[in-house]
Amino acid sequence: MKERVVRLKVNGMYRKIMLEPRKLLIEVLREDLGLTGSKAGCDDGSCGACTVLLDGNPVRSCLLLAVEVEGRDITTIEGVAGEQEMHGIQRAFVQTGAVQCGFCTPGMILSSKALLDRNPNSSEKEIREAISGNLCRCTGYVKIVEAIMAAAKEKRGE
């Protein structure tokens, strides 16, 4: 298949990349851009480890062709924090012990960030629903939900 130039906006920066039209977004992020925070866990969208934000909404990057998202706003875990400090959700994950092996953490953080950006007053039920597409094999989700609730509280200024 013939390669073509694709313009992607990743973490606020535009990048022009020569790629085959059938290349998945997760492959472009990890292999071409060196953004390895998003994990390739299942290749069928069932685990959520590859979750990124597309125009602020969580999506599975293993299910999207890079050409499908040309010109749209993509945020990976590498684009969540500022230059000097962690994002409030990242900090809450560390402080509550929600980080175990870390494989699911980037997807969990991005899914929860999307939720809290829309609704910082989310209930525990809404939080659990928002992360339901992100599988964690190490925890029972208790610490993860606790972290997201703490981040929401911080976001509200409480």
A few lines on this structure:
This protein has 158 residues and is an alpha+beta fold.
Description:
The chain is of the alpha+beta class and 158 residues long. The chain folds into two domains: 4-79, Ubiquitin-like (UB roll), CATH 3.10.20.30; 88-155, DNA polymerase, domain 1 (Orthogonal Bundle), CATH 1.10.150. 33% of the residues lie in helices and 16% in strands. It has five helices and five strands; from the N terminus they run E-E-H-E-E-E-H-H-H-H. It has helices spanning 25-32, 88-96, 105-118, 124-130, 142-155, and strands spanning 4-10, 13-19, 51-54, 57-60, 73-75. A five-stranded mixed beta sheet has the order 2-1-5-3-4, with helices on both faces. Helix 2 (88-96) packs across helix 5 and helix 3 packs parallel to helix 5 (142-155). The longest helix has 14 residues, at 105-118. The radius of gyration is 16 Å and the shape is globular. The N and C termini lie far apart (54 Å). The model has no long low-confidence stretch (mean pLDDT 95).
Classify the oligomer: single chain
Radius of gyration: 16 Å
Mean pLDDT: 95
Q: What's the structural domain tally?
A: 2
Here the CATH topology of the largest domain equals Ubiquitin-like (UB roll)
Helix-strand category: alpha+beta
Helix-strand topology string: EEHEEEHHHH
Beta fraction: 15-25%
Fold topology:
Layout: E1 4-10, E2 13-19, H1 25-32, E3 51-54, E4 57-60, E5 73-75, H2 88-96, H3 105-118, H4 124-130, H5 142-155
Parallel strand pairs: 1-5
Antiparallel strand pairs: 1-2, 3-4, 3-5
Helix pairs in contact: 2-5, 3-5
